[in-house]
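Lab notebook, bench 4. The sequencing result for the construct came back, and we need a structural model before the next group meeting so we can plan mutations. Quick request posted to the team channel:

Model the 3D structure of this chain.
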Amino acid sequence: MNRILKEVKNIIDENMALYLPHVNASDLEDNGAVFYMNGKNGTEFDWYVNDHISNFMTFYDDEDNMGAAKLILYNDGGIELYLYDEKGKKLAQTVHTHIEVEETELLQLAVILRTEADDCLIWDASIERINSDIEISAENMNAFIDRKEYHAAMKNRMIILNLKACVSKKVTEEGWKVGYMERGKPHDKADSGWVFFAGDEDEAYLSDYKNLELVDVGYVWQQFDHDIFQYIDMPVGSKLIRISSKEFEIDHNDKGIYMERRV
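Done. Here's the predicted structure in token form:
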């Protein structure tokens, strides 16, 4: 097994013994196996967009099958470990530590996990199943590195999702989809610059702060309007109107806004 994966398992085992001494191997799935959870995003996406390798998990062996340990290994060697008691229902301990490793070695592991897990259709499986103790070819390494630019736009969007936006209550409370979106100059590092309106708000409505809310862009995307996602990385000065149930276009002041309520 790859030496970094061995360290990952040792860190989980040692901290389980320290903070959850009453949990035995027999209480855990496959006697405490560590599972590589690449099934959600895949190794390459997590490496370039989330700055870590896909998560590692150990699970309780019961009907609910909830997590006992969750380890995040960042691409600088930093580690966050979450330990869960009461069959996974209670966070018992958070551990911050690191592995002494060069970023190039971690990159090599990411490539190995991409080629020997993702590409082999091995998803969310025990690390024992992954052929990880191998030398990675220059061809596979270069192919992985070349795909960094492919993920750059997505990473930028993920950053923007955590920034604030000004949103009309016609969107947040009255059930309208976003009909008009405009990106101004951000006020500070926490501000995206985006405003999201239903589209028929007049000046009197918008001048009353009680009609507006300051929330994360990601909250608008998740809770109110999935259609905004592909546009949120557009530059300052962008003004868009909804033209159909799913599409926006640049506002040239020559079309009416297509307004629609959420289903």
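The mean pLDDT is 95.
Will bring this to the meeting.
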